[in-house]
Design goal:
It is a single chain. By secondary structure, the protein is mainly alpha-helical. The protein has 2 domains: about 450 residues, MFS general substrate transporter like domains (Growth Hormone, Chain: A), CATH 1.20.1250.20; about 60 residues. The chain is globular, with a radius of gyration of 23 Å. The chain starts with 10 loop residues before the first helix and ends in a 5-residue tail after the last helix.
Length: about 575
């Protein structure tokens, strides 16, 4: 590893970047067409589809708590990632079988729920553990960590960028029989990610000292570290009796949410598990005062993240419905395939140039990318020689899910560079302030779209309004999400590293379920909906709800940030 330039990030970061890129390709490609599959192939109404969508995406972020616990105590990060990846590939394959039998509603529904189960459980093992590995590549206190997570986040969104395009073009064609090909593309993407991780992990997923990361359970790693430093091992106090007490509390909360607050069983379970997980961890008597206060900071930040993602995740449901029905998507592109392949090739070369300038790319990947570059050049030549025409009358609604990811890929390196330069000058704002800023930009995005739909009538709006919303949401996301991942890694005690990462994703679970609930209020002609006494009769009313929710959360978090920074005890 001596040939690695210290000014760049370790080669292991690119391995995780590439693996996560394909996993997110799989997830976001499926997500882009999922709601449309339910409404156009299975013929569900929007409210039912939104609730299923919210339950699925909520559970996807609930199971990382289990996966994080298993990794911390038993399997380690590497084995958990392998199991999770294989389960998700199986889930996408079952979604393919569901869409292949869409005309038989009962059979299609059975395959759909089996597929969703595979994706939910698999993501639980995959998601918290690959994020934890990013932090383990760097020594504690390394100033590059925020930038590393921003670059890792770029990998997430690179997959999220081209997956809705690929899966949307293959599946969202207007013919319900084609949805299966979108799901199959998602399956293939997941398999590529698993193979890449397994082949590269031994050589590149190592610490600066050359030790393998994620190969053993974090609890065992913590014990070894304590022994080497002559310290006494810190043991968790999560006894069977204590777990039993919290299990009773969990059942009681589920009953309250379901029978008193009229939540469905999935929503009741997600909300209850989120509360119990926080209580279970924070009452562990092995925690020192400093550790407990740092964990409280994670929990407070996670609470505000709920409001961010509940509004942001409208992208997969209500904003997709909006793009499908209320937006002018006509483009009438008529050109040759040679031009199309040339544009794709130029973008690929620019992307590779950016990546190799900010990260150390292992030579195995360089060989693959070189071969891909040669193949793209071959397509360009053959496209011009054959002269075949490429026609695109309008952009499928599902592909607008790529817009946010495009902005992430473009802006993530700039944000990583910005945080790095501010950090060197001692001017980088602490994580809570960054997250408050993220909520503010989210609110501004909905201000833009609310202006667009006010007094809309029967005229469809320009796609630029939605693109502007996604730009502002992207800026907000880069201020909040990768910073949150980095913060958990910096604040979490090593013995709770993956478990607390899973707990962080509980906020996403709650938010995604809440997002589905809110999306179900999407107004339709002649229909009035109401949320906590606020009546919505049109799209303007609907989007104002998100302006108020995210804007208020931003203000409150900003004023709490000074106290939270103090409780971080020197961690920035």
């Amino acid at each position: 590893m001596s040939d690695v330039k210290q000014s760049k990030h370790p080669q292991g970061l690119f391995v995780l970047f590439f693996t996560e890129m394909w996993e997110r390709f799989s997830y976001y490609g499926m997500r882009a067409i999922f709601a449309l599959y339910m409404t156009k192939a299975l013929m569900m109404d929007k409210a039912a589809a939104s609730n299923i969508y919210g339950s699925f995406t909520g559970l996807v972020y609930l199971t990382p708590l289990i996966g994080g616990y298993v990794a911390d105590r038993y399997w380690g990060n590497r084995r958990s990632i392998l199991v999770g990846g294989l389960l998700m590939a199986l889930g996408q394959l079952l979604m393919f079988f569901s869409a292949s039998n869409y005309q038989n509603a009962d059979m299609a529904t059975v395959f759909m729920w089996l597929g969703l189960t595979g994706l939910i459980v698999g993501n639980g093992f995959f998601k918290p553990n690959i994020s934890t590995l990013v932090g383990q590549l760097y020594p504690r206190g390394d100033s590059r960590l925020d930038a590393a997570f921003t670059l890792f986040y770029m990998g997430i969104n690179l997959g999220a960028f081209f997956s809705p395009i690929v899966c949307g073009i293959l599946g969202d064609t207007g013919n319900p029989a084609d949805f299966k090909w979108g799901f199959m593309a998602a399956c293939v993407g997941m398999i590529i990610g698993v193979i890449s991780f397994e082949v590269m992990k031994k050589k590149y997923l190592v610490t600066p000292e050359g030790e393998a990361v994620g190969a053993i359970a974090n609890k065992k790693r913590d014990a070894i570290s304590a022994k080497e430093n002559g310290e006494q091992e810190t043991k968790s106090t999560m006894s069977a009796g204590k777990l039993g007490i919290w299990a009773v509390v969990l059942l009681a909360l589920i009953a309250v949410f379901h029978f008193v607050m009229s939540q469905d069983w999935i929503g009741s379970s997600i909300f209850s598990v989120s509360i119990v997980a926080l209580g279970l961890i924070i009452t562990d008597s092995s925690l020192t005062k400093v550790e407990r206060e740092r964990i409280i900071v994670i929990f407070v930040a996670a609470f505000f993240v709920i409001f961010f993602w509940a509004a942001f995740e409208q992208a997969g449901a209500s904003l997709t419905f909006f793009a499908d029905e209320q937006m002018n998507r006509t483009v009438n592109i008529n050109t040759s395939y040679g031009i199309v392949y040339l544009v794709v090739t130029l973008l690929a070369f620019v992307l590779y140039y950016v990546l190799q300038s900010i990260m150390n790319i292992p030579r195995e990947y360089k060989f693959i990318f070189g071969a891909l570059g040669v193949y793209l050049l071959y397509l360009v030549v053959m496209g011009f020689v054959k002269g075949e025409q490429f026609n695109l009358p309008e952009i499928p609604a599902s592909t607008y899910n790529s817009v946010n990811a495009i902005f992430i890929v473009v802006l993530a390196p700039l944000f990583a560079e910005m945080w790095g330069k501010l950090g060197k000058r001692g001017m980088e704002p602490p994580s809570p302030y960054k997250q408050a800023l993220g909520l503010l930009f989210l609110s501004l995005g909905y201000v833009v779209i609310a202006i667009a739909v006010k007094d809309l009538g029967s005229v469809k709006v320009s796609m630029m309004w939605l693109i502007t919303l996604y730009f502002l949401h992207t800026v907000g996301e880069l201020c909040l999400s990768p910073i949150g991942l980095s913060m958990v890694n910096k604040l979490a005690p090593a013995r709770f590293a993956s478990l607390l990462m899973g707990t962080w994703f509980l906020a996403n679970a709650t938010a995604n379920k809440f997002a589905g609930t809110l999306s179900a209020f999407y107004p339709e002609a002649g229909k009035t909906t109401s949320f906590m006494g606020y009546e919505m009769t049109n799209l303007y009313d609907f989007f104002v709800l998100f302006i108020v929710m995210s804007g208020a959360a931003s203000i409150v978090l900003f004023f709490l940030s000074k106290k939270l920074v103090k409780m971080m005890h020197g961690v920035k």
